[in-house]
Amino acid sequence: MILLKQNMLEAIERGDIYLSRKVSLDELNPNSINVSLGKILKTYTPFKIKKTKKGLMFVKTKEIVLDVKKKNKVYEYEIPEEGVILSPDMFYLGNTIEEAGSDVYIPMYEGRSSLARLGLVSHLSAGFGDVGFKSQWTLEIAVQEPLKIYPRMRIGQVYFVSGSSQYPIYKYEGKYNGQNGPQESKMYLDYIKKDEEYINELEQDISVLKVKMMTATSDEVDIYREKIKELNDEIIKLKKEVE
Questions:
Q1: Does residue 170 lie in a domain region?
Q2: How far apart, in whole angstroms, are the C-alpha atoms of residue 38 and residue 95?
Q3: Do 212 and 115 belong to one domain?
Q4: Cα–Cα distance list, 236 to 115, 165, 200, 224, 239 (Å)
Q5: Which residues contact 166 (CB under 8 A, 6 or more apart)?
Q6: Ramachandran quadrant class, 132 (left: phi over 0; alpha: psi -120 to 50; beta: rest)
Q7: Calpha distance 113→122 (Å, rounded)
Q8: C-alpha closest to that of 19 among 95, 97, 128
Q9: Do residue 121 and residue 198 come from a single domain?
């Protein structure tokens, strides 16, 4: 069930909904809370800011390829008061000024429909929050046409959904909790963890082979040495990827 205006205000007063600023009943939408765009943008694409007759504009300066297993480099820009024009051939990360979430309800984010009608998307796939998330929301921003945006403008809304009360609540403790400002992808950490676990398994295999070598024949020793070399080469390769 989506919480309505009065339900949200009561939940805020009880502390069941966390919001970093105070709101009155008049400031709430029928079933959501407005949130605004912070002043910092991040992008994975190298860029320059060009002065045009329409205003300052992002211009891509280099084509890139991102890698889900790597920590990709990001470039930061502070939106000036006069605004900046976003380019359709770039992708941006922004954030809500407000911190919003709950230890009781499921927080959800939706972009503002008036901006969608101008071709701006402020979340691509991460509008679904988790119980226990109480931070600024990172926004995945893309535009269909060049569009000027401004700091502190209304960008979207957060709403809250009640879950089943018959089961215990498990709070979100993931890598994005407590984020401040636009947060780039941390997906590479998933691979680092898997690689570290695999390295430990390979090292254990090497230890087993070394024990076997102590009672092995000369032919078997040569086989074990070759296998240990292969495993060590694999470990070196994985450690380079982790770095």
A1: no
A2: 5
A3: no
A4: 49, 49, 12, 18, 5
A5: none
A6: left
A7: 10
A8: 97
A9: no
220 shares a domain with 118: no
DSSP state of 197: H
Range of the domain at 231: 188-242
Say whether both 72 and 108 belong to one domain. yes
Number of structural domains in the chain: 2
**Domain match, 149 and 203 both:** no
| Average pLDDT over the chain, rounded to an integer | 88
Question: What is the rounded average pLDDT of the residues 186-196?
Answer: 75
User: Residue 219 corresponds to which tokens in the numbers above?
Assistant: 């032919």
Residue 243 pLDDT greater than 60, yes or no: no
Q: And the tokens for 100? A: 């919003």
**In terms of domains, do 21 and 86 share one?**
yes
Predicted TM-score of the model (pTM): 0.76
Instruction: Give the bridge partners for 77, in sequence order.
Output: 41
140 is catalytic: yes
Q: Between vectors from CA 34 to CA 74 and to CA 32, what angle results, nearest 5°?
A: 120
The one catalytic residue among 13, 78, 82, 140: 140
Asked whether residue 124 falls in the same domain as residue 229, the answer is no
pLDDT digits (tens, 9 = 90+) for 64-109: 999 988 889 999 999 999 999 999 999 999 999 999 999 999 999 9
